[in-house]
Every structure is written in structure tokens, then in C-alpha cells.
Write a structure and sequence with these properties.
about 150 residues, elongated
Amino acid sequence: MKRAPSPRWIGAGAVAVLLLIQWVPYGRAHRNPPVVRGVSWDSPGTEALARRACYDCHSHETRWPWYSTVAPLSWRIQTHVDQGRAKLNFSRADRSQEEAGEAAETVRRGTMPPQDYVFMHPQARLGLRERQALIEGLVATFGDVRD
């Protein structure tokens, strides 16, 4: 009759897996390319709100927290930043930003900033007035898909 693995062996195996995945290189680049051309914001207030709630994923000015070097979190964070920059990049105002007109709508719907980001970055939490000010500023800066 086979015995089930002891909790000690299961724990040791889990630790070994966590240590081994640290050698997977994805999510370790953590570099910010240079800002090519920043956005001409409608107001300093809009820029401040966007920097607080959006810039970590939608610019080349990402602040990389310490846990962004620990797999598997590093994989998820790098993926979010890569996807965010691909959709809308405030550091690349030199090129067409097809998603820019949708920026206000995503904030209006409450899908941006994402809840898991706000959980880890409480400074990105927007009150009702701040959310409305950001929406109005994004519309003034980029337009709106509802236009």
C-alpha cells in the first residue's frame, strides 16, 4: 500500500518549484524605453490624474515595484504593461493612438484602472469627482468614442 506524500514533502516541492521558476526570464526586463513625445494634456489636473491611475501600464514611465521581479507575479505585471502600452501609450504621442478615443469610455465603465491594480496601488483609486474629472480631461485631450 502506497503512502500519501507528507505535507513536508509537498511544501518542499512547492518551494522548489517557486525557486526554479525564478530563472524563467520573461517579466524581468523592467526597462522603460525613452519617452518619444508626451501627450499635450488639456490641463495639469488631467495629467496628474492620468499619471496616478494610468501611467504605470500606459507609458514608458512605469514604476516597477519590488515584487515585479518575483515570478510568477513578474509575468503577469510584464504582460499587463506590454498590453497597456500596445493599446495606448502616453509616451508615444508621435504616432496614431487608435485606442485614445476609448480611454474616457474605459474609465466611465469602470474597467480602468483595473481593480487588481488599484488593490496593489491604492493611490490609483479615484473618487467620483476625480473619476469624472479624468473622464472630462481624457475627452478634452483625445476625444470620445461617443462623439
